[in-house]
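Possible race condition, two jobs.
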Amino acid sequence: MVVSNSLNLPTEEELTVQEVNLSSSSLRAASFHLGKYCENINNEFMLCRSENPQDPRKCLEEGKAVTNCSLDFFRKMKKNCRQEFETYAECIDKSSTNFALTPCRKTQGVYDKCVLEKLNIERPYWGYFAQMKVHDTKRPRPQIEEQIYPDASDKLSDDAPRTDAKYQGRYIFQ
């Protein structure tokens, strides 16, 4: 990748945020409730990324907001349902080699009940995050530059030379 001197890269301070320093089993245990808790902020970030696929620098603030939301969620989890969460995450970690949730349904029930009672977050049903949803945003829609190719022809001429097919006929599937 070639970079010129006129390209403004973000500073180290702009890129540095506190990380969510948890194990895979802990993230897997909290995934449904975390996704529900930070849904709007994450949707805003994903919308920004889909609108700016060539320049991720435009979405740094939205990315920081997602990380801060995750940290806030885990702080509340630690304060309210720490024991149930740790039991459920340990079960996920030690009961299978691929972090399967199936062997831990009893501990999941206790954990879900605690999160519902103390954080008022109901575990979303299976497939909730795969459903299409409309996200309402305050951000202005980006201006899409229409690309015009002046040398493009309207269509190919009918008298263009056509060679015979090298292997079998061209219309084998018709």
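Job #2 (started ~2 s after job #1):
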Amino acid sequence: MTRVVIQPSYGKAETRRHWADTLDRGVSFPEARRAGALDAEHLAGLTAAHPGGTARFWGATARHDRTMEHIDAGDVFLLTGQKHVRGIGVVGHGFRDHAFARWLWTPRPQDCLWSNVYSFTDFHPTWIPYEEIWALPGFNPGDNFMGLRLLNEEKGNTILTGLDVLAELKVPT
């Protein structure tokens, strides 16, 4: 079963900078290993999902640890901002690694550090207004999708089919 997650990702200036650093372009993750910011286990998982050594990354804070424990390769993220779905990605490898997250996003010390990291094997920038989601069965007009949200199976399937997400993405079946 493919899980679907909606996550705000483009609101503050800092997250837009992170987006530019790790979603607008791929990141060479073997460089992180050489810098001591990626352990061998996670490097192996990333290499299996991304044999070329480059991936696009996003993450979640420790507040979302319990939710992120349910995320697997092949799950789909809808990344939101400015009342639109800004990007859709298929998870390649997910893991928890503070050092790697700090290496990717170099947050200011007083800022919240993303500890959960996930890569995308397939990622597409989009511009889907929230109204298209609100029009689907089971969704409410005015819902601005605040906070990371793991959808139940029914709502996940509704989004995947209603937005025709699977037509563009390579989602393992």
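The longest strand covers residues 114-129.
Logs attached separately.
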